[in-house]
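Reopening this one. Same input as before:
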Amino acid sequence: MKINRHCALAVIPFLSLLSVSIPGAFAATQSDSSGRTSSYHLAPGDVLHLQVMTVGLDSLSGDLPVQSDGRVTLPTRPPEAVMAAGLTITQFQEAAQAAFRHYLRYPQVLVTLRSPHVDFVYLVGYFARDGAYPLGGESSSLANASANSAAVSAPGAFTALDAVALAGGAPEGDLSQVVLTRGRTTRVLNLDEAQRANDPRDNIQLLPNDVIFVPESRQHVTVQGQVNAPHNIPFKAGMELEEAIGDVGGVTAKADVSHVKVTHANGKELTIDLQKLIQTGAKDNIALQAGDIVTVPELLDRVLVLGEVRNPQTIPYKESLTVDDAIALSGGETPRADLSHVKLAHMDPASIQTIDLDRARREGSATQIKLKPGDVITVPTMDAQVFVLGSVTHPGPVPFRPGMTLLEALSGSAPETSRTAASVSAGASAGGPTTDADLYDAILTHADGTTVPVDLDKLIRKGDQQLNMKLAAGDSLYLPESKRVVYVFGAVNKPGAYYLSQNDKDRVLNALDMAAGSSPGADIGKAKLLRRSPDGKIVTTDLHLDKMLNKGQLQDNVQLLPGDVIFVPQQSRQPGISAGNLLPSLIYTLVPFLRP
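Same output, byte for byte:
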């Protein structure tokens, strides 16, 4: 039979895709490096290694993927697509050899499995870490299982509870109402019972493309508004209001603590004076129930009056309202009030001033001390005190004692029960600075009105005890809210928000170091920097961390600006999907709602 020479040359472009190898005998084996045999059935995502020998040409070899439609495109002219999905390696080898016969004389084709496809399950809802997860074990055996099978788990199988554990659990989810979607069918799984009673009936084996949805649990308390980390917290018997607010990092400097609202699941609403609760230790009407919503409102168009007045409260702001008016509306001062050292804290711009209200009344100038919306008035007692205000867990007066230092005042600015994991340091372990406090620009105001800037970062984080100065009675320490924050997300060991140094000269590698470096499996060559431009647009810059860390090429180690986001993607084994392309815009959308 005569072969058309032009047809025989039609596969010459194959050389551009397949590497030329040394001709020689090759065994007709059908196994890959993992020991898979010819019983393996091909599926999209598999990568095959082809070797082709024919009369008059060198041996050709190369890798070809099984595409999403299940076909493999052979590099002939024109290209010929051969169905591979569902075939064994031997069957596909025969099909490929038959295809090459149209172009080559007596072709001999050898096919081996270079790398198998990865099957995924999808975990959505109230998992700690939702997303797509690869199935454990032999993916091919799962791919060949019945799509409608809901068999009870077998030893070594990847089960529903395995998936929950892999996703870090579901602390805010209801594991008794888990929904499994498999193809067009759904099933409700009681994984709570399966876990508690070791009942295997609902702890089924998962199959490729299963979707597990965990709904929100109603056994929680929602804390929202002007708190440092608003979120749902697990409910436990005996939980009280002050404990719930402590669990979310305490209130912010903008909180209206006199009008905290507790809304029960039945719609009943209570208004609690949290400031009075903390001062008096009263326990009336603060026991929480599952499903409660706690809302701490913002101090808008109001003035807060604290300390030695007969009725500490938040009062509505009106134009021309004075300090004397606000104290009078709060029932007037108590006999223990020290009117010569009244503290007035402004929110915008942030400042604290000490007012000698006694003298102002005598001179007739008290009516000239006007207030602004959000002002906080603290009337101290005749007993010696210092004041810790601003971004601290419980702003207000702190009892003074001779020799008291800055750190002692910070520690005394919150009760022992308000300790949280978000505390900035050991110096604030009693609840001093909140997580959004600007430790670099604190202000110490002495009783005589002189002010001293204080770098609490050096004192607390770096242990510079020379800055731990002694205080005098009547001193005020103010911690403003920080604005110098960057965010590091993705495949790093400690993702989150981090403060820039005082001189704002931190660079990309400094932020990566603060996040404890990249985690295993990180695709550091595809890291990205997201920055919002002055016109509001998001600008994305590629960060070649691999070149920075491995080759010392630091041109991408740029200086960071407040609000920058660094995203390090995880390496993906699923063809055609890149987490680095999908997640950064989503993360930047969420950043305005995050707090450090």
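So the earlier flakiness isn't reproducible anymore. For the record, Residues 89-100 form the longest helix (12 residues).
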